[in-house]
Amino acid sequence: MDEWVLVIDVGGRGGASLARRIRALGVYADWAYVRRKAAADAAPERFQETGFARPMLWDRPPSAVLIIPDARDAQPALRAGVALAVGRALEASYGWTVAEERMVWLAPPDGAAPDQDDGGDETSKRADAGAKTTGSAGAGGAASAHADAACAALKALLFERLGLRGGWTWRAVIERTVEAIRRAYPEGAAVVALSGGVDSAVAAALVHRALGDRLKAVFVDHGLLRSGEREAVQTALAEALGLPLTVVDAGARFLADLSGVVDPEEKRRRIGERFIREFESIAAGLKEARYLVQGTILPDVVESLPTDTGVAVKSHHNVGGLPERLGLALIEPLRPFYKDEVRALGTALGLPPSIVYRQPFPGPGLAVRVIGEVTAAKLEMVRAADRIVREEIEAAGLGTDVWQYFAVLPGVATVGIVDGARVYRETVAVRAVRSVAGDRASWAHLPYAVLERIAERIAREVPGVGRVVYDITSKPPATIEWE
User: Fold this and answer.
1) CATH architecture, domain defined by 170-356
2) Are the CB atoms for 165 and 3 separated by under 8 Å?
């Protein structure tokens, strides 16, 4: 795995998806981004290279650099500034110098083509189009043909024009990652924040191979878990990872911090801040701890990046770094990968299916499935409804077919009839989606009989609930979670 490709986004968001497509074709690819400080020009001083502020797996320059420019940089007159900014970033961050002929310009994100005197790189334009093609079911023959053409163009770019061989494996990624972690963190202990999900478990398994007993595993129970989750997490992680697990019961503190908060972003901010406070306390008891391991994955990073308006899709509590007062450096070995790739990596590491194929669960937990203020009573209501949703979908044998399924408490009271009298009770929304990587999703066409059983049980078994609805919105335009 000596050859690899670096995809750099300059203003757009297509690079992360393109890097994933390149990996799927057998060539390892990583992704970084360059964000412009000012929209007016492409001079090097107008850029901030925040996407380069992390170690990569290699101690050698990439075999090729693919640049996806902002549409404003499509003209050759502006390319010199962009290229210089990218070159300076690579030199400053890694000491790498990449030959000009190994830097390939792709089509800008809005599809505007560069001037024809740029070399007529139609192959690169069609290759980049592959990063924007969804290929989702029902897209039609035209979209499928476009995806096939884009894939062929991308293969031509990688294997013919750039002369790459391909053939990377997850085993090679494991070896490189373990080697890189040992090289970067030769001394001191690390603390891993386990959530019970596949991301943190795979991150822990990777770092454990590199650091051995220098890794300390901690599970912070924030009181926002699903029914029976704490016990299941403790058993599964202890058996799969062989790591002694320290459990911190912080539910009351998290709930106190969320009191009176209704804004979704403020919820995430407070949950993130409380996690940091809990780890401050943990780190204080581990004097040798120098690093914090997190299961941050690529969609977390992409969704947290601000757009040109300065607003992100949504913030993630594990993205954005830690306050300096914590004094722990971050180790995030899964940052280059999407969820399906993390599952493949977990399988290569030998983790059991019960962890590898565990359905995604947000870091803020049920707090983002209670719309509005989070209270103990609302948590119990959504927890009970969620348990019924999971039980019925899994009893129907659909658990492995559906990417994610859960209940939401929207905070909407609707009229109903009980014993002939008018009552107002809460509504529960059921959400089930199919996806591959989580960046896009389609709503799951669950059998009517399953939906009927779910609705009947929730209305009968969960006190205070009088209506059940099913969310049939795909991503986009909606996100998978409601907050």
Assistant:
1) 3-Layer(aba) Sandwich (3.40)
2) yes
